[in-house]
């Protein structure tokens, strides 16, 4: 049996992994439909989480057999959403710290989100992990087939020059886990949006991103190079499982 490649890159989903944005986009979508005369329920959107806003909005419209102009609906949803971002969007505890530790461990970093670029960039800037932090940022506008198709993760791997087997994906959604495994990648799921029992197709499930260690991402393979020495915010060592938002700059 061929030996598996050592993990050398981490691909993060954004919504529900790095940012607690699912409640905001949900509220914006509910508000948009209400403006258009349709009362929908927050839970109506759950089957479409992680599939991009076209499917997120379109799937609910299909459920209610509600004809609507998708581009206009998406535009209005983003208007409402972007109005909420400055005061309500936050990073999940531990997200920034994990990204810093991945970088210091010598891992390449990408974001692969099914959302449109306007939302992705607004979210990343708001939580202090702007696009220039990453080796690549791939959005739903960059691929034809959305999650659970593997395209977005394969595109991210291509942009950072790492074979799929050398990548690990951090996901929160059922569609995202399916996409990661279809791409031939290791997947660590965080039960921040869906219950852990819905995410069992992942290689590993943790309760939250704050609980994810570097060894979880790499499958226990530790890089002994100098880049793997992690330094804390005040110059001290950081334990593998330590998380936190008070972290040095990534760039």
Please provide a written account of the structure.
By secondary structure, the protein is an alpha/beta fold. It folds into 2 domains: 9-20 and 92-228, 3-Layer(aba) Sandwich (Rossmann fold); 22-88. The chain is 35% helix and 10% strand. The chain is built from 8 helices and 6 strands. The protein has a 6-stranded parallel β-sheet, with helices on both faces. Helix 1 crosses helix 3, helix 2 (53-63) crosses helix 3 (70-88) and helix 3 runs parallel beside helix 5 (117-126). The chain is globular, with a radius of gyration of 18 Å. The model is unreliable at 222-249 (pLDDT under 50).
Task: Supply the key terms.
single chain, about 250 residues, alpha/beta, six-stranded parallel β-sheet, 8 helices, 6 strands, disordered C terminus
CATH topology of the largest domain: Rossmann fold
Q: What is the rounded Rg?
A: 18 Å
Task: State the shape.
Answer: globular
Query: Could you state the CATH homologous superfamily of the largest domain?
Result: HAD superfamily/HAD-like
Taken as a percent bin, the fraction of beta residues is 5-15%
Which helices and strands, and how do they pair?
Elements: E1 9-12, H1 22-35, H2 53-63, H3 70-88, H4 95-104, E2 108-112, H5 117-126, E3 136-138, H6 151-160, E4 167-171, H7 174-182, E5 186-190, E6 204-206, H8 214-218
Helix pairs in contact: 1-3, 2-3, 3-5
Quick gist of this model?
The protein is an alpha/beta fold. It has helices spanning 22-35, 53-63, 70-88, 95-104, 117-126, 151-160, 174-182, 214-218, and strands spanning 9-12, 108-112, 136-138, 167-171, 186-190, 204-206. The protein is built from eight helices and six strands, in the order βααααβαβαβαββα.
